Amino acid sequence: MSLVVMKFGGSSVANAEKVKHVAGRIIAKKKEGYKVVVVVSAPGDMTDDLIEMAAGVTKNPPPREMDVLLATGEQASIAILAMALQAKGQAAISLTGPQAGIYADVDHTRARITEILPKKILAELAKRRIVVVAGFQGLNPNLDIATLGRGGSDLTAIALAAALKADLCEIYTDVEGIYTTDPRVVTDARKLDEISYDEMLELAGAGAQVMQGRSVEVAKKYDVVFVVRSTFSTAPGTRVHREVRHMENVVVSGIALDRKQAKISIVDIPDRPGVAAKVFGALGKAGINVDMIIQSEAIDRKNDISFTVSDGDLKKAMKALRPVKVALEAKDLVANSNVGKVAVVGVGMRSHSGVASKMFQSLADAKINIQMISTSEIKISCVISRDHIDDAVKVLHKAFELDKK
Amino acid sequence: MSLVVMKFGGSSVANAEKVKHVAGRIIAKKKEGYKVVVVVSAPGDMTDDLIEMAAGVTKNPPPREMDVLLATGEQASIAILAMALQAKGQAAISLTGPQAGIYADVDHTRARITEILPKKILAELAKRRIVVVAGFQGLNPNLDIATLGRGGSDLTAIALAAALKADLCEIYTDVEGIYTTDPRVVTDARKLDEISYDEMLELAGAGAQVMQGRSVEVAKKYDVVFVVRSTFSTAPGTRVHREVRHMENVVVSGIALDRKQAKISIVDIPDRPGVAAKVFGALGKAGINVDMIIQSEAIDRKNDISFTVSDGDLKKAMKALRPVKVALEAKDLVANSNVGKVAVVGVGMRSHSGVASKMFQSLADAKINIQMISTSEIKISCVISRDHIDDAVKVLHKAFELDKK
Lengths: 405, 405
Description:
8-stranded mixed β-sheet, homodimer, Carbamate kinase, 2 domains, alpha/beta, 11 helices, 405 residues, VC0802-like
């Protein structure tokens, strides 16, 4: 008998009607002949409400207690969903993360899963029950509840699929799958039938936020094939799996975009060892993730370093860098928050030349100036003015014929 | 070092301001030199909200899942309260019922505590932390969460005080203690400094709903002295303990009342063995608690049986009794929902004669007709017309000089 792990996000269980609908979909899957394990997130805005509750009593909620609080959201969801399944005549049981045998490390509010011992899940499946597991949580070595941080429920689903050697893992969300680009920008953006882990990672990192990168990484590591699909439609969704050569026979699979970037440049700093370490050490200490980094060629033993950070981190980054600028005797420290990023993503481009030149030429034809360029094996990213993002995405989507299958 | 168990109900932690206030009171107690264990209920209306959530998906929530759902209320409370304590600089840790070593039986939604193994609590107290324990919940033999039913948080506090051999147990609520009668009826009702378990049980059973009877029974069984006092005042409250002879040197300690009674009479039934068993067997099967029972003397081998039930159970009771009436060939089955009960309660009356006659005379002087009478060692109850309840309580409160110390 095949085993499926189905994951439903918070918007899918936001109210009683939606919970009943989800219960119906789960039972339909069971009737197809699967053993079913369901992973569910906290209902709707509950996690935000709980965070607000904590904010009412303290500015710095202690992480252990925050986890005790946040874990109640998913616990409420599993109980309600198990009730809805039973109300439809389907045997079902809810399990919290600890009850399901999900073990995590001690890093509260962003713990990693260390091990899954699914004895209880297997015993309940053997009783022909649907097992509803709380996402986002596990038991740590102190026997405390630990939550897994952003995207934790997806991670729970992928990790359970791996531990249970599931035949299928379905991530239900409010979109129908992974698109060639943001459908809000390009109306003829096309849903992809399949995509590789690496492409999905690049699309996610560049702003296509269907899933957090860490879940995709775990799926890749354990070779868990999963399908991203909609809770509210029967469309087949996008299958995410290991790279298949000439998959769909396309070169480029999608255009990613990120409006919320900011560019920082440090101008005229001495070209000596340790400079980059000082700059990015200071940013790392301040907890700021740096994205693209470009260091211009040294002229007269002087360098420029430019890089992008998330727009929300800009102020913090500038604060951290001001003393560095002084220490390095740099001429200037310049911030530009009116930038964004477009990226062409595709496993196919590894074996095809001409993708980069086509990208640059298309942008040039549209009179869009490129401020920074960064490339990886399966992605070419350009930083451009934020005002040109929509135009750039449209131009590139057309140039690479992504509207056509 | 002395140990105190402090219990706060849902209204005491209904919002952030109240939680902060409660945290302040707990810290003040710790500064008096106590080791402190706190038991807390779900915040405000959260339990009702959760029940409503379940009602949205099913008419008959499965009890196991109901417990998974309801337990989240107290879990949210312990986290928030531990946060508030830490925000005030006080080391504190939250423990769910299972983490605290509270074990229960498998009777979901109304489990009994079977055992408390407070190893973790003691370890945390040794680290000079305040330990905040979720009321109303424990771990059952299936390793499932079980809730303890109505009054469960009081029960948790009393049981923990017994298991920890606490020097003091304080039940914080929204009234200042136990009163000689309902202050809404008699304005000069007086707060009692102390009361015995038995008197408190009689007062509770007769409608003075400060605490559920089962918690008082457990306190009595394990000789746990506790104080009922207000969260929002520093008044000393009422001390509840084993009977002390001539406690306060009074005969009567309070007047209890219950407006929500209904009287049922079965008229003219044959006087033969097994009749009462049939009547009360049918009611027991329907889950109806019967309070006072009076069987009149047999005349011509025919009996009348009258008894009271809670007004809310009247319809169900009549439905259960109609076939019994037919089977017993009784002449009539009569219901009267316009009745209530007043009771005079006091350990002192055991050794004093004249309490009953004074009660009946006082009611007669006020032209209040007595429909039924029932007595126990420390209580005399009368069923009267519901319209006369307030007058009766006032008359009796004055007659027994309860306004005077």
